[in-house]
Amino acid sequence: MINSLVAPDRFIMPPNTVSYLAGPLGGLAWKTANEAAKQYFLTLASGTRIEEVFAQVEEEIYPLLARQVAGTPKDVSIAFALNVTEALIKLLDCIEASLDAQHNIVTPSTAYSSLRLLAKSLRQRRGTQLRQPEGTTDDVIGAIDEQTRLIIIEEFDTQYCEMLDLARIADVARSVGARLVVDASQLIGIFPLDFHHFDVAVSTAYKGLLGASNGCTPIFLNRARWQPGAIRPSYAGRNSIQMESEESFLFKDDPGARLQPGGLNWLGIFLLLDSLRNMQELRLELEDIAQHVLALTTEIVLALKDLARTNDQLTLDIIAGKNPLLRGPHATIRMQRASAKLVCERLAERGIYLSYDSTGLRLGPRIHNSSTDVERAVKHLGEVLLELSYNPLDPTWVAG
Ligand SMILES: Cc1ncc(COP(=O)(O)O)c(C=O)c1O
């Protein structure tokens, strides 16, 4: 029997919640987020210049964020963008000039849409070759060669529901002189990451970091991998430069500051800080969170297999990493997107919250979950699938 790591009543949940396992979609917001948002608006309403307040916030939030990748602000320079897509656009803007026609870029065919599309647009602009292997460690490494200059990956492969070995990939990337850009959205705040294993990582704030709000994406630049001047955006807003004259501007020294040209989504940043403070006050260690999530994911997989044992109609195609220690933050039941959406809607009527993507129905436990949540969710899922006449052989249900 696994208990929750943090009492569920510390989070804002839909009022009728029976079980909330929709972690992959986004984490639950801490109830303290309400107070943090109020403080933010009161600060503005009292006429305080937001830049002054933000200077203090930066001092506190950068070390807390750096801890998420096992470093300090001396190891990683941090910047904020509005979302992962924007963060990648800004980074690729700085990397692009080093790419030309004899080079290749490696991005798995299953990576998040922005990663794939941005890699494709680099191919069009720079004439580089684009390699799109599957998203496992071996497949990514197999696609890298002497001409690889850029590798853009997620650190969790949603096709196989398995974590990648970033240390191994980083070694190979460095041996050929390629930049390694990692989208850590699925793992950050849940599994320990190490800044030594990427050149730059980006992540959503609203999943494992429980930062409540979209609109605030931390960028982690491994300082040792960016020589002075390597981050030189093709734009310069008032926060990224030291001098304001348009003709002779001078970028700030800090690589992260250079990527943050103008006003930021400060409310999102305040909410993220509030979440990081909660995690620190509760002494939540990433190792413990990871162990908790892995143990519950194993329970989910076993409970789903049990469903099939009791009813032939409930034979499910369960995607979960073969090695339980590499399973990462969720398991998926392979299903057509439209069917998975319908199942989620029916389950939500019963107070059971799961999520879905193009791979299928996803069950992702987080710090507020216990074994009871798993039991309830799987029991209701079985009932809903029978109600909807689920058929494992019917292509409208199961993707080919
Ligand atoms: C792996 C991954 N990256 C990024 C995002 C979000 O990025 P953006 O806000 O740019 O769409 C998500 C959201 O689901 C995601 O799963």
Automatic annotation (TrEMBL):
This protein's GO CC annotations: cytoplasm
Aminotransferase class V domain segment(s): 67-353
GO molecular function, one term: kynureninase activity
Keywords from the named record: Hydrolase, Pyridine nucleotide biosynthesis, Pyridoxal phosphate
Domain of life: Bacteria
Gene3D superfamilies: Aspartate Aminotransferase, domain 1, Type I PLP-dependent aspartate aminotransferase-like (Major domain)
InterPro entries, A to Z: Aminotrans_V_dom, Kynureninase, PyrdxlP-dep_Trfase, PyrdxlP-dep_Trfase_major, PyrdxlP-dep_Trfase_small
Pfam families cross-referenced by the UniProt entry: Aminotran_5
UniProt record, GO biological process: anthranilate metabolic process; L-tryptophan catabolic process to kynurenine; NAD+ biosynthetic process
PANTHER family xref list: KYNURENINASE
Annotated protein name in UniProt: Aminotransferase class V domain-containing protein
Organism: Reticulibacter mediterranei
